[in-house]
Amino acid sequence: MADAHTEEKTKDLKRGHQMSGHSRLLACAGIMVLAVTALSFMSVGVTLADDQPIPSITVGDQSGTITAIYEKTLDIDGRTYGVTPDVVMFDDYGRVLDPGRLVVTAEVKFHVTKEQSNMIDKMIVTLPR
User: Which pTM does this prediction carry?
Assistant: First the structure.
C-alpha cells in the first residue's frame, strides 16, 4: 500500500514537470524581459555617475607653479596673485580642493577676474605625488 501511494506521488511529480512548448516559450520570454530590465537599470546608474562635469580651463587662462604661499596671496612663478573670497579650487581629478592643502611646487592652472588681473577666482591644482 505504501508503494502504491509512493508511485502515485511520483507520477504526479513527473506530470508537473512536463511543460508544453508554448509555456516554455513564455517562461523564456519572461526571463529575458527581466534580464534586459535589470541591465538597463544598472547602465542608467553608471551613466548618471559619469555625467558629473570635470573642471576645465578655457583659452586665456594661465598656468604655472606655486612658488610661495601667504595668508591671502600666492606667488605663482614669482608673481603675486590675490585669491577671491569665493575662489573655486579643484584638484586634477575634479574634486573640490581645500585651500589648506596647497603646497609650494604644486602645478596650477588658474583664471583671473576680469576686473583685476591679479585676483584668482578659479584654479585647478595638481599636487606633487
Answer: 0.55
